[in-house]
Design goal:
Radius of gyration: 23 Å
Strand content: 15-25%
Shape: elongated
Oligomer: single chain
Structural class: alpha+beta
Number of helices: 4
Distance between the termini: 23 Å
Largest sheet: 4 strands, antiparallel
Number of strands: 8
Helix content: 25-40%
Protein backbone atom coordinates (compact mmCIF):
# COMPACT_ATOMS: atom_id res chain seq x y z
CA UNK A 1 0.00 0.00 0.00
CA UNK A 2 1.19 3.51 -0.84
CA UNK A 3 0.10 6.95 0.29
CA UNK A 4 0.12 9.60 -2.42
CA UNK A 5 0.91 13.06 -1.04
CA UNK A 6 2.45 16.34 -2.10
CA UNK A 7 5.81 17.66 -0.88
CA UNK A 8 4.46 19.66 2.04
CA UNK A 9 7.15 19.83 4.73
CA UNK A 10 4.90 17.86 7.07
CA UNK A 11 5.28 14.92 4.69
CA UNK A 12 8.73 15.41 3.21
CA UNK A 13 12.04 17.11 3.98
CA UNK A 14 12.92 19.19 0.94
CA UNK A 15 16.19 21.12 1.02
CA UNK A 16 16.71 24.28 -0.98
CA UNK A 17 19.75 24.93 -3.11
CA UNK A 18 23.12 25.95 -1.66
CA UNK A 19 24.05 29.61 -1.71
CA UNK A 20 27.16 31.70 -1.20
CA UNK A 21 26.06 32.36 2.40
CA UNK A 22 24.88 28.93 3.39
CA UNK A 23 26.01 25.39 2.65
CA UNK A 24 23.41 22.71 3.36
CA UNK A 25 24.46 19.45 5.01
CA UNK A 26 21.26 17.47 4.60
CA UNK A 27 19.75 17.05 1.16
CA UNK A 28 16.17 16.27 0.18
CA UNK A 29 14.91 13.08 1.88
CA UNK A 30 18.05 12.81 4.03
CA UNK A 31 15.88 13.40 7.12
CA UNK A 32 12.70 11.55 8.04
CA UNK A 33 9.69 13.59 9.09
CA UNK A 34 7.62 12.56 12.09
CA UNK A 35 4.81 11.60 9.70
CA UNK A 36 7.22 9.58 7.55
CA UNK A 37 8.47 7.64 10.56
CA UNK A 38 4.91 6.68 11.46
CA UNK A 39 4.10 5.55 7.92
CA UNK A 40 7.27 3.47 7.77
CA UNK A 41 6.38 1.81 11.07
CA UNK A 42 2.96 0.88 9.66
CA UNK A 43 4.52 -0.56 6.52
CA UNK A 44 2.91 2.04 4.25
CA UNK A 45 4.93 3.31 1.32
CA UNK A 46 4.86 6.97 0.28
CA UNK A 47 4.85 8.44 -3.22
CA UNK A 48 5.38 12.19 -3.61
CA UNK A 49 3.59 14.21 -6.26
CA UNK A 50 5.97 16.69 -7.87
CA UNK A 51 3.27 19.17 -8.86
CA UNK A 52 -0.32 20.06 -7.87
CA UNK A 53 -1.50 18.85 -11.28
CA UNK A 54 -0.25 15.33 -10.49
CA UNK A 55 -2.85 15.11 -7.71
CA UNK A 56 -5.72 16.39 -9.81
CA UNK A 57 -8.39 14.26 -8.13
CA UNK A 58 -7.61 16.05 -4.87
CA UNK A 59 -6.73 19.51 -6.14
CA UNK A 60 -9.83 19.95 -8.31
CA UNK A 61 -12.36 19.47 -5.46
CA UNK A 62 -10.27 21.77 -3.24
CA UNK A 63 -10.25 24.47 -5.90
CA UNK A 64 -13.98 24.02 -6.42
CA UNK A 65 -14.65 24.37 -2.70
CA UNK A 66 -12.40 27.43 -2.43
CA UNK A 67 -14.22 29.13 -5.31
CA UNK A 68 -17.63 28.34 -3.82
CA UNK A 69 -16.67 29.60 -0.37
CA UNK A 70 -15.18 32.87 -1.65
CA UNK A 71 -18.18 33.61 -3.87
CA UNK A 72 -20.71 32.74 -1.16
CA UNK A 73 -18.95 34.99 1.37
CA UNK A 74 -18.81 37.84 -1.15
CA UNK A 75 -22.50 37.53 -2.09
CA UNK A 76 -23.65 37.29 1.54
CA UNK A 77 -21.16 39.91 2.84
CA UNK A 78 -19.60 37.51 5.33
CA UNK A 79 -16.32 38.65 6.87
CA UNK A 80 -16.04 36.98 10.25
CA UNK A 81 -14.03 33.77 10.58
CA UNK A 82 -16.81 31.83 12.31
CA UNK A 83 -19.25 32.82 9.56
CA UNK A 84 -16.84 31.53 6.93
CA UNK A 85 -16.37 28.29 8.86
CA UNK A 86 -20.13 27.77 8.78
CA UNK A 87 -20.09 28.16 5.00
CA UNK A 88 -17.21 25.68 4.75
CA UNK A 89 -19.04 23.06 6.83
CA UNK A 90 -22.20 23.47 4.75
CA UNK A 91 -20.32 23.18 1.46
CA UNK A 92 -18.37 20.09 2.56
CA UNK A 93 -21.59 18.44 3.75
CA UNK A 94 -23.33 19.24 0.47
CA UNK A 95 -20.40 18.00 -1.62
CA UNK A 96 -20.04 14.73 0.31
CA UNK A 97 -23.64 13.86 1.13
CA UNK A 98 -26.00 15.51 -1.35
CA UNK A 99 -24.40 16.46 -4.65
CA UNK A 100 -24.12 13.96 -7.50
CA UNK A 101 -20.49 13.84 -8.67
CA UNK A 102 -20.02 14.93 -12.28
CA UNK A 103 -17.65 12.03 -13.09
CA UNK A 104 -18.95 9.06 -11.07
CA UNK A 105 -22.63 10.08 -11.26
CA UNK A 106 -22.97 9.08 -7.63
CA UNK A 107 -23.12 10.88 -4.29
CA UNK A 108 -19.61 10.53 -2.76
CA UNK A 109 -20.69 9.31 0.70
CA UNK A 110 -23.02 6.68 -0.82
CA UNK A 111 -20.31 5.56 -3.24
CA UNK A 112 -17.84 5.23 -0.35
CA UNK A 113 -20.30 3.23 1.79
CA UNK A 114 -21.00 0.93 -1.17
CA UNK A 115 -17.28 0.34 -1.75
CA UNK A 116 -16.75 -0.62 1.90
CA UNK A 117 -19.74 -2.98 1.87
CA UNK A 118 -18.41 -4.71 -1.26
CA UNK A 119 -14.82 -4.86 0.01
CA UNK A 120 -13.73 -2.71 -2.91
CA UNK A 121 -11.38 -0.45 -0.93
CA UNK A 122 -7.77 -0.26 0.17
CA UNK A 123 -8.75 0.37 3.79
CA UNK A 124 -7.62 -2.40 6.12
CA UNK A 125 -8.21 -3.11 9.84
CA UNK A 126 -5.60 -1.45 12.01
CA UNK A 127 -3.20 -3.77 13.83
CA UNK A 128 -0.38 -2.79 16.14
CA UNK A 129 3.11 -3.56 14.85
CA UNK A 130 5.25 -5.61 17.20
CA UNK A 131 6.47 -5.10 19.89
CA UNK A 132 4.02 -2.29 20.69
CA UNK A 133 0.91 -2.81 22.79
CA UNK A 134 -0.71 0.63 22.55
CA UNK A 135 -1.65 2.93 19.64
CA UNK A 136 0.18 5.66 21.57
CA UNK A 137 3.45 4.09 20.46
CA UNK A 138 2.44 4.44 16.81
CA UNK A 139 0.64 7.78 16.66
CA UNK A 140 3.20 9.85 18.53
CA UNK A 141 6.16 12.17 18.15
CA UNK A 142 9.56 10.47 18.19
CA UNK A 143 12.98 11.37 19.51
CA UNK A 144 16.00 9.33 20.58
CA UNK A 145 18.66 9.96 23.22
CA UNK A 146 21.85 8.29 24.41
CA UNK A 147 22.02 7.22 28.07
CA UNK A 148 25.03 8.82 29.79
CA UNK A 149 27.40 7.27 32.34
CA UNK A 150 25.02 8.20 35.16
CA UNK A 151 22.14 6.39 33.44
CA UNK A 152 20.35 9.58 32.56
CA UNK A 153 19.09 11.22 29.41
CA UNK A 154 18.51 14.91 28.74
CA UNK A 155 15.31 15.88 26.94
CA UNK A 156 14.44 19.54 26.33
CA UNK A 157 15.94 20.65 29.62
CA UNK A 158 14.68 17.69 31.67
CA UNK A 159 16.98 15.10 33.22
CA UNK A 160 15.37 11.65 33.22
CA UNK A 161 16.79 8.69 35.11
CA UNK A 162 17.00 5.42 33.18
CA UNK A 163 18.01 2.82 35.80
CA UNK A 164 16.97 -0.14 33.64
CA UNK A 165 19.11 0.83 30.64
CA UNK A 166 22.91 0.35 30.51
CA UNK A 167 25.07 3.44 29.93
CA UNK A 168 25.79 4.50 26.34
CA UNK A 169 22.71 2.75 24.97
CA UNK A 170 20.18 4.61 22.80
CA UNK A 171 16.55 4.81 23.90
CA UNK A 172 13.56 5.60 21.72
CA UNK A 173 11.26 8.26 23.17
CA UNK A 174 7.60 8.31 22.20
CA UNK A 175 5.93 11.62 23.05
CA UNK A 176 2.15 12.06 23.24
CA UNK A 177 1.03 15.66 23.85
CA UNK A 178 -2.15 16.28 25.85
CA UNK A 179 -3.24 19.83 25.04
CA UNK A 180 -6.10 19.87 27.55
CA UNK A 181 -3.95 18.79 30.50
CA UNK A 182 -0.90 20.68 29.16
CA UNK A 183 1.37 17.67 29.69
CA UNK A 184 3.60 15.55 27.48
CA UNK A 185 3.31 11.83 28.12
CA UNK A 186 6.60 10.02 27.53
CA UNK A 187 6.98 6.32 26.79
CA UNK A 188 10.63 5.23 26.65
CA UNK A 189 11.67 2.07 24.80
CA UNK A 190 14.88 0.11 24.76
CA UNK A 191 15.64 -3.34 23.41
CA UNK A 192 12.00 -3.72 22.22
CA UNK A 193 10.61 -3.13 25.70
CA UNK A 194 9.02 -0.12 27.35
CA UNK A 195 11.36 0.60 30.23
CA UNK A 196 9.92 3.84 31.62
CA UNK A 197 6.92 6.15 31.33
CA UNK A 198 6.20 9.56 32.82
CA UNK A 199 4.48 12.88 32.13
CA UNK A 200 6.14 16.31 32.02
CA UNK A 201 4.81 19.85 31.54
CA UNK A 202 4.13 20.50 27.87
CA UNK A 203 5.85 23.88 27.88
CA UNK A 204 9.40 23.80 26.55
CA UNK A 205 9.05 20.88 24.11
CA UNK A 206 10.15 21.79 20.59
CA UNK A 207 9.89 18.79 18.30
CA UNK A 208 11.04 18.99 14.67
CA UNK A 209 8.38 17.61 12.34
Amino acid sequence: MHFYVDSLRLFRFVQGRDSFWRKHVLQTDDADTQWGKMMSLLGVGVTFALSPQARGKVERPYRWLQDRIVRTCALESLGQLEEVRTVLREEVDRYNNHQVHSTTREIPSLRFSKAIAEGNTLFRPFSLPKPYTSPKDVFCLRESRMVDGYRRISLFGHQIQMPRVPPHEEVAIHMIPDIHKQVMELRLWWNEKMVHSLSLPLQGFRVHF
